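Q: I'm teaching a short session on how sequence maps to structure, and I want students to see two examples side by side rather than one. Could you give me a first protein with its sequence written out and its structure tokens following it? Keep the formatting plain so it prints cleanly on a handout.
A: Of course. Example one:
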Amino acid sequence: MTNLRWIAVIYAIVLLFAASLNYIPGLTDGQGRSFGIFALDIFDDLLHVASAAWAAIAAYISTRASRAFLLYFGILYFGDGFLGLITGSGYLDLGIINYGIQNLPFGFKILANLPHLALGGFAILSVLLFGRNADA
């Protein structure tokens, strides 16, 4: 199995973990925020589960499918995190439409959007590093 396929498998696991955060006792505060930062709802959970399924299916199919997943996923999630960093709302959960631009402390915006920036950025970087031989 190629590096891109292994990375897609790891993404499937990480995304399933993200979807489970609301359901692990002790990880949410009284306001329902995971780690006191992320207010995840059922739509976020569904997004993470769908992304995990996409990653798992891509890893199962081929290196080329894994490369496509990592590239498109990376662009979507990094873009969502970047928009969240600038405006306080992302687009994947329709937050920019539902809540508009939010006046939040910049440090909070960094913490809240770091997972999408990191996941998206690493996905794009992995394609750049390992994607040349993604014909299989």
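Q: Perfect. Now a second example for contrast.
A: Example two:
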Amino acid sequence: MKIYKYICPALAAVMAFMACTKQQDPYITAGEDDYPRILNTDIPEMDGGKPSNLPTISRDAAFTFDVIVTPREYTTVSWFLNGEAYTDGVTENGRHIETYLLAGDYSVKILATTVKGKETFRNCTLKVLPLDSDPQIANDAKNTWFQTGSVKKVSGSNLAAVTKAGLLPVAETKASMAELKVLSASADAVEVEIPAGLAEGSYSLILETSAGERFGAGLVGVHADEFVDPGVSKEKVWEGSVDINWGDANVLITADMLANVPVGASLILNYEIPDAEYHALRVTTSDWGVDIVAQIDAFHESYPDSFEIKYTEAVKAIIDEKGMLITGFGFRLTSVEAISGGAAAEATVCEGSVDINWGDANVLLQSELAGVEAGATITLHYEVPEAEYHALRVTTSDWGVDIVAQIDAFHESYPDSFEINYSAEAKAIADEKGMLITGFGFRLTKVTVK
């Protein structure tokens, strides 16, 4: 009886300990027949059914992540980036990944599979930012619209060394990259030929330089139709087929034909170029007295199928009085279109995460603003964490001239973004000395132009 009395309390203590341990970690006894679980707390919760966002990284930083799974001994983790199985830098039965990625946006699927074939997964997204020196393209809707069977001029920066380009499908199935023929490249543009018959959808644009370096240039869309700006109005003011031949055959556009066309529209002359002894374009008045477009010889070399005339107040005044005569030699005019309206496209000129802190951390925009016209709106996007105070100032690289004078507690009126009217005066200042975004107590995440 004594032995029994001593043994029972001991057994009770052991059983209590085991029960406590099991209660604290209910997965410690999971076996090969159990369903797998991904236990990470560093994967954000899904937002409204959308994949969660992993922390943004720069393309010169390794993408590193550890997956915590149970039952650990019986579970293998597989990685899928943009729908393709990914194995580079994957170790420990897939539970650890450490790899470098091209700049771009990635869908990330983390799939846990047990030896009995039971599965669970997490869907995430990952943004990898390019370096300032990388070839990049503007991400507005028109620039990223690729029409099959056409030649596309893509605007951007650091593009002069690009010699190869390709489109990698963003899909759930493994696919090869479609090569694009590079026709020309300059610092701010690259011209590529898009194959006919390419499947419509979302693609990652991959650029390669003459040195063999490859860069992710972001997502583009492939479409069978041409791009149409939202809200654009197109009106055909004249249509036919006239072989323009100086005095023998010309086309006169009258003020009545343009009655519904607003000032600021574009008048597009569409034509064909047959063989001829020479080619010339001139746009003048009905009495040949005032030139709207002075004679351009061999115009077809720069404008092979169309020519644009801005319908300004001055041009409207001329046409209202004497009409617009389209003349010249060696081309067949097929139509005249008036195109107006359309929402201004928004482009991102700078993206990242910089905690602005006066002299210690600022953002200087110089080449990024090279193609921005006066009259545009530049928007600073930011987060406002807790800080001892908050101030915004936009000045020049030498702090000599303010584009926006210092605003203390700016976040009270502008909690997440601030707009700058890029006037002719502001543009002249920025062209000479750059635009320095400085201050204190905010995290700059993006600068857009519209």
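Q: What should students look for in example two?
A: Point them to this: The longest helix spans residues 2-24. Also worth mentioning: The longest strand covers residues 324-341.
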